[in-house]
# Entry
Amino acid sequence: MSNASEVLANLDSELEWQRELYKDLHQHPELSMEEHRTAGIVERRLTEFGYDVQRLGGTGVVGILANSAGSTVLARADIDALPVTEATGLDYASSVDGVMHACGHDMHAAALLGAAKLLADHRDAWSGTYVAVFQPGEETAAGARAMIADGLAAKVPKPDVAFAQHVMPQEAGTIGTTPGPVLSAGDSLKITVHGRGAHGSMPHLSIDPVVLAASIVTRLQAIVSREVQPGQFAVVTVGAINAGTKSNIIPDSAELLLNLRTYDPDLRKRVMASIERIVRGECAAAGSPRDPQFDYYDQFPLTSNDPAVTERVTAAFTGHFGEHAVFRVAPVTASEDFSELPDALGCPYTYWTVGSVNPERYRKAVASGTVLQDIPANHSPAFAPVIDPTLGIATSAHVLAALAYLSKQATNEVAP
Ligand code: ZN
Ligand code: ZN
# Structure
């Protein structure tokens, strides 16, 4: 019996409590950086399993299991929910008004706890150190930073490798891996432009910031279409324009909220520079009396998988789940703060996706070309991962990835 099959032999009995835990977390979602109940549950379970447990960054929890000499593996699950009103109709739907686990972080937490328990129960099958990180505040990009600011690097042994996963609207029973960029860098930007207010009947006395904002929105569309090389990935979205109060008052300023996504750090800088150049140019054209302001917020780093780590983990997945279950996932345009942890700790990482849609339903949607319409994606009020086999696959994936580095037979070397 291989180490992995020895550790995973008890998976079915663990899944019984994991399903209950998942439903409980789903019913009691907590917003970013307010995950007090969830953190308490995680803390109690990890302590029960024999982990050395500490709190970091308020509602972050770290469990360390030192099991003699060998590599150190860090695995991270995010635990926060979203300000979304659940519309799944599930019998374990959210009991909290306006808050929902609409991104599947409850699944990540239940899976990592299961993997942590299996590894703790089978210490004879591996050696090294396992660090299970339950990170708050992923949705606001605050959680990884809070844990790092609270001394993560000094409080955990330096990992040789780090892992994270995310449930996605893909076929349950499948896992997606890819070397290189897997999630985009994401930046939010608030732009304030200034005009001169006046009565709506006397536009000649004004410098109208609404017209200015409208020109900016139109002109920004030319960045991706005219300045970015065709085939290179960039998104510039104006998600909000706020100005004015009444039809007959020209306001004196306007605010635009932008969202940017890129895979290439140089392109990211160029897109930001283009935005600022265009906004300044339009302000000058309008005769704006004051310089525009640019405030960047909710900034997510690029998630770019280490090729050697990805290859090793993919081989472990394929060996256990079979070739049919593991596919090369195309980079996703969503963003994550996970990579801040391995970047702060100085180790390579890989991040994979886990299918969560009933296979029959998924295949039907693919056959009729209606995946985008018929399958609710993450953040949708109807997002409802199927518990089986998603939870079992996600739990096994963490065990398999860990054992690829902690197994007694493994060379325990991270390729450069
Ligand atoms: Zn999310
Ligand atoms: Zn998420």
